[in-house]
Amino acid sequence: MSKKNKDNKFKDNLITRSEEARKVRKIVSIIILALIVIFVIGGISGYNYIRSALEPVDATSEEEIQVEIPLGSSSSTIASILEENEVIKNGLIFRIYIKLNNESEFQAGNYSFTQSMDVDEIINNLKQGKVSLEPLYTITIPEGLTIEQIAEIYAEKLHFTKEEFIEVVDDDDYISELMDKYSVLPEDILNEEIYTPLEGYLYPATYDFYEEEPSIPSIIERMLMETENLIYQNLDAIENKNLTIHEVATFASLVEKEASNEEQRHEIAGVFYNRLEEGMPLQTDPTVAYAVGEHLETTLYEHLEEESPYNTYQVNGLPIGPIANFSRSSLLAVLEPTDSDYFYFLHDSEGKIHYAETLEEHNQNRDDFMN
Predict the structure, then answer these.
(1) Which regions span the lipid bilayer (predicted)?
(2) How far from the centroid of its chain's Cα atoms is residue 208's Cα?
(3) I need a labelling partner for 236 at 20 to 30 A (CA). Which of 49, 79, 86, 363 fits?
(4) Handedness of CA 257, 258, 260, 266 (dihedral sign)
(5) Of the candidates 174, 167, 171, 172, which has an alpha carbon nearest to the alpha carbon of residue 148?
(6) Would you tell me which CATH number, out of the four given (3.40.50.1100, 3.60.130.10, 3.10.450.350, 3.30.1490.480), belongs to the domain 65-128?
(7) To the nearest 10°, the Cα dihedral for 73, 75, 81, 86?
(8) Is pLDDT of 6 > 60?
């Protein structure tokens, strides 16, 4: 090949490569431009979406929406409640917003919101505890009550009967739904020998109601939520005691029924632990009354012979389940019992408790303080 031909071929190749490079640069430029456009559009869309999510649900609505924020609710729980009640548009965006703005210390309570409120108004109300409605009913459920007694209290003030309340708490399908929803409810409550599955799990407290006719399930679930909050606040201590949730609920119910003040609760819990460690039956009279199914002014020997998994004169260890609801104080007593060498105690007619290390001392206390 002549030199001239070689030069022409080199030029042709150079032109071809130059054209290919221009095409590549053009394609790359188009791709980069497309990515920039996509990024910008995505950013604008994302910004608009977030801004929209933080705006009022309906700026024209003044209809009041009643919302309960339970005690101990996390920001995630609060966001879910507000979204479910259509007070905010997006719970996730709400959580991110309050985190970025370091908002916290929200107050429990029953609130009245409208869909015209913006996110900052909602946050301010939650922080200041601005509860705008007066309750229609205020009902106190004392500690140490059975579900039957709880049902009686509600039936006296609300629109349903005691029997209707008990029918709901004993409904197997409903219990299954609750177990899926509330992890505080263990499989133990499904034992066929359990008298009432939710016994002990309905928390004693004063409850405000803002509806004319609150449903029985809504009442039950409010009480369950309070128990769940209490249990999970003390879960580490429960695990350190090598107790299950059902065991600690059962234990706390016994302490609740045997003691009348905080000091007694810790002392009696210590006695029960001593008996359990020695393999002695607990022999606590409230379990006999629960087994018999009636209030006993005096526990007779015939009552002690009642065959029941609740009767601690007939079974060793804890009964099969709680015999009443329990207070925070009784739960803490189980977790922090008084250390002693006592194995026995008895109540005198004035409400004082006398402790003993031996059966002989216990019998002497019986002679001294029960006659």
Answers:
(1) 27-50
(2) 18
(3) 79
(4) negative
(5) 167
(6) 3.30.1490.480
(7) 160
(8) no
